[in-house]
Amino acid sequence: MNITDETEIRAKIRAFILASINLPGLEDGDNLFESGIVNSLFAVELMTFLEKTFAIEVGPDDLDIANFQSIEASAGFVSRKRTEPSAA
Amino acid sequence: MNFSTIGVIGAGNIGTGVVTDLVMHGIHAVVMDISEAALQKAETEVLKNVRFAPVFSKTLPRVTRAEATGRMTFTRELKDLAGCQMIIENVTERWETKRPIYEQLDVLMPPEVCFGANTSCLSITKIAAATKRPAQIIGIHLMNPVHLKPTVEVIRGFHTSAQTIDVLQALFAQLHKQAIIVEDLPGFVSNRISHVFMNEAAFVMQDQLATAEQVDQIFKQCFGHKMGPLETADLIGLDTVANSLDVLYESFQDSKYRCCPLLRKLVDAGHLGRKTGRGFHIYPTA
């Protein structure tokens, strides 16, 4: 995983979120849930998006809100899953 | 009373949530809808809800896909509900749609079975009058996401018996839910107030006073609400919101419940909210 990949992942996640929520000032580290920016229904959409877009699988041990609470956290999660030996 | 099988009529947003809640708590759901497409979508959504539930709740039971699938039966035939211990009805918020269902259920189901009417506006007393078991009809106003909401507004119709309330409380005990029991007038407590909010937010949009994002952010970040009125309307479905406003307007004959023309226009345009990908907000599809 290089910086270009990480940047690209963040950009795709950001674009997905901003397509739904008009908050151009959203920072990569902003907590999406604590601030009330999104709700649990959107979180399910986000997780489904991450799986489809980055060809990863959110497994039972990954079901922690900390993995998806921000653009930064989601991108980090995707990066980790893509480097796992069993990743698609 | 211990529940093992519940009949769920209507596989829309709330019906899907009800099924999710039931299967996560080990109760078999017999799900009836006239639309095969709605049933298929409901199954997909339930499995998605069950899979991702641990992200939002550490207390909900963990249920495998196989377990969830095994606890659901889908049908387009009302008669397949005959063996259920209780019915939760979640069809469209229209009297003409609900009435024939209750008339048929009343003939089909054993006399001791209670019917929970999931409505946000219609009179429980009126629904009960369509049956010969008015004491066993109770209003259940479930809200999204059903499996994550610990509390439910429950409505006692004019004839609803204490025994029926006990039956519902027993089901809620299995689902780890609490009931707030209120009396029966259109809109009850929640929608009588919330729909005025949502409708007025639509008028704010019509008057171009602010963007949809601004309206919702004010409610979330200033009032501390989890969702703003416009995204709430989008989640409920703008058609459902308009129908509920019509019921309130007709019931109270009060102009404060008149449906905002912009809201009606969006419904006519097919922009019904989250379920169609666009309402006051636009929703990306994954």
Structural features, described:
The complex is a heterodimer of chains A (about 90) and B (about 290). Chain A is mainly α. In chain A, about 50% of the residues lie in helices and about 0% in strands. The longest helix of chain A is centred in the N-terminal third of the chain and has 18 residues, at about 5-20. With about 290 residues, chain B is α/β, with parallel strands linked by helices. Chain B is built from eleven helices and eight strands. Chain B has an eight-stranded mixed beta sheet. In chain B, α6 (about 160-175) links the parallel β7 and β8 (about 180-185). The longest helix of chain B has 21 residues, at about 35-55. The model of chain B has no long low-confidence stretch (mean pLDDT about 95). The interface between A and B is medium-sized, with 27 and 26 residues.
* Secondary structure tally, helices of chain B: 11
Number of strands of chain A: 0
Shape of chain B: globular
Q: What is the largest interface, and how many residues per chain?
A: A-B, 27 and 26 residues
Could you give a short account of the major beta sheet of chain A?
Answer: none
Strand order of the largest sheet of chain B: 3-2-1-4-5-6-7-8
The rough form of chain A would be described as globular
Radius of gyration from the alpha-carbon trace of chain B, in angstroms:
19 Å
CA radius of gyration of chain A? 12 Å
One letter per element, helices H and strands E, the order of chain A comes to HHH
N-to-C span of chain B: 42 Å
Q: Structural class from helices and strands of chain A?
A: mainly alpha
- Let me know the average pLDDT of chain A: 84
Helix content of chain A: 40-55%
This entry's quaternary arrangement is heterodimer
Distance between the termini of chain A: 15 Å
Task: Tell me the helix content of chain B.
Answer: 40-55%
Task: Tell me the major beta sheet of chain B.
Answer: 8 strands, mixed
Uncertain parts of chain A: none
Strand content of chain A: under 5%
